Amino acid sequence: MQTPLLRRGTGRSSTSEAGAPVPSAVPAEQGANVVQRVIDAVDALVVVALPEGNLWLWNQRCDETSGLPLAEVAGRSVWSVMRLRPNFAAVAQKSFDRLISGTERSVEFQAQWLRKDGRKARVSWTARLVDINGFRFVVATGVEATRGRQAAREMAETESRFETLLEVLPDPIVIHQDGHPVFVNRAAIDLYGAQSAEEMYTLPIIERVAPESRPFVAARVSQMLSRGDPEPMAEERHLKLDGTPFDVEVVAAPVTYDGRPAVELVVRDITGRKAADRALRASEARVRAVFDQSSLGMVVIGRDGLTIESNTAMERLLGYDKDELARLRVSDFTHPADREPSQGLLRDLFEGKNDGFQVEKRYIAKDGREIWARLHAAPIRDGTGTPTLAVGTIEDISERRTLQDQLRQASKMEALGRLAGGVAHDFNNLLTVVNGYADLLVIALEGDERVADAIEIRRAGSRATELTAQLLAFGRRGKRALEPVDLNGRIDDMVPMLRRLLGEEIEFGVTLDQSLGALEADPSQLDQLVMNLVVNGRDAMSGGGSLTLKTCVLESGAAGREGDRQWARMEIADTGFGMPPEVLEHIFEPFFTTKGQGKGTGLGLATVYGIVHQMGGHIRVESVIGEGSTFIVELPVCEARTPGPTAR
């Protein structure tokens, strides 16, 4: 134990054998010497002990009576120095413990004091706990019972000296009897804005309490006096002499003053602290409001990656509630492919290698959805500047990524279409010449055995012409006249042929919305569109399955479509093996096929794509491995105009 000591007569403080300085709350040159001078002036035994039970100071009377100078015993256990018998030591220790725990403000006990002449004297001790800016010590005053009549006078002197000690304490202290102040120290006079102690004595103590706190204070005092025990620290609102209210913390304890029961109050002004607390709470409320009401997901994580805080937007984005997120690490809802890069960035952030970062990554929602998001992360530092937490702002960019992918796909298909269309157009011009000469050759060789070869040339030219027509349709270079077409009627006419095309192993279902209006389309191209999608579905179900074709009406503005016109939707769904994402990326590209060599040209879906876009429509595909694929075609319905014949 390191115990601050005082060398009497030198005017200088010293330390215990461990060499510890006097605590800053009681400066060596001021606090210890002030206390020493006060207790030296008391004609009674005065012992000052630290909360640990070690002796700090005692007065000249103790030196003279015990024959032991303070320098020899300071820092030792006060019970061993006083050489108490076991039964006295136990009582004294319990009293000391009650003081230190705050259960009592003042205790009394009996003990023996071993004098230097060898005689034992019974001593009556009164002890109090003193707290000076957090530096706590116990002051015990003892009077020898053998001194008889002189005891009363010495006790009076002791109380006087104790008042002197209270005067130098920094905490405001008020003692009142029957509700009227009878003692205030300098700190209390300054706290309440008085000029002298007499000003404080003019009014009952309750007048120094704000009206809203008076019932609470009255109940506290009544309870304390009835039990005889100190009241723990509590917050109250008091009034200065000019009526200004201020907030205080008060500890109250029953004491004896001038031979009569009294109440001692230790008052501490907490107005500044309360104002700072209110400002802090207001600031925290504003930050919390920004955090909770942000439209962007926000999350605070620790160094271990655990989620400490999350806002409503983050919970809505991932589908977890706050408690569920608090049990998860960021890696738990990060896409497996993005975990290692994300953890590396966070590790660098906590190690101070970066001041934050921005990255696009994928999260996995509670329902398994994949979410693309942009993460902005920044460190939260402690008082030493060390990153202890990280705050992340998460922006959902899934829709934007989808639009970007669609734009890239559309641009790619547009480029491929222009290339294919340009090549097909030039090739078609050459085929016109080839086919023309093939026809002339067939006529010229009529009756000649070589005419068969000429006929094969003409057939090959015809097939090349058909292939070129498909490329022109994909590239939208083939200009067709559009007319009102009844989609449901065209499908009805094709159903028998489609059933034969699918065969008996594939179940075929058709659901048509009879409210569907006419489309502005080329009838033959519309037939080719339906035929190609049905054939594609059949080829995906080599072992049989079911294929459904249905139509319906989309109201204006549905599915993000602009304008006031209606749209027709056609869905063709199969129960085939489905397609992985890497196939879906290229499904409409010309010459791309998943069929074996010689089993497909790779132009069927490319032709469908060209036809749909030539009609001003849109096409997309949804597919799940093992469940099948659904092709969704959306085409604009004819705008209102004078009725005319509709192609069927």
Descriptive key words:
648 residues; alpha+beta; Beta-Lactamase; 5 domains; five-stranded antiparallel sheet
Question: Which second-level CATH architecture of the largest domain applies?
Answer: 2-Layer Sandwich
Which shape, going by the Cα principal axes? rod-shaped
The CATH topology assignment of the largest domain is: Beta-Lactamase
Largest sheet: 5 strands, antiparallel
| Total number of beta strands | 24
Distance between the termini: 106 Å
Fourth-tier CATH superfamily name of the largest domain: PAS domain
Strand order of the largest sheet: 4-3-7-6-5
Structural class by helix and strand composition:
alpha+beta
Strand content: 25-35%
Number of domains: 5
What is the count of helical runs? 19
How confident is the prediction overall: mean pLDDT?
81
Residues in helices, as a percent range: 25-40%
Low-confidence stretches: 1-28
> What is the CATH C-level name of the largest domain?
Alpha Beta
Q: In brief, what are we looking at here?
A:
With 648 residues, the chain is an alpha+beta fold. The chain contains 19 helices and 24 strands.
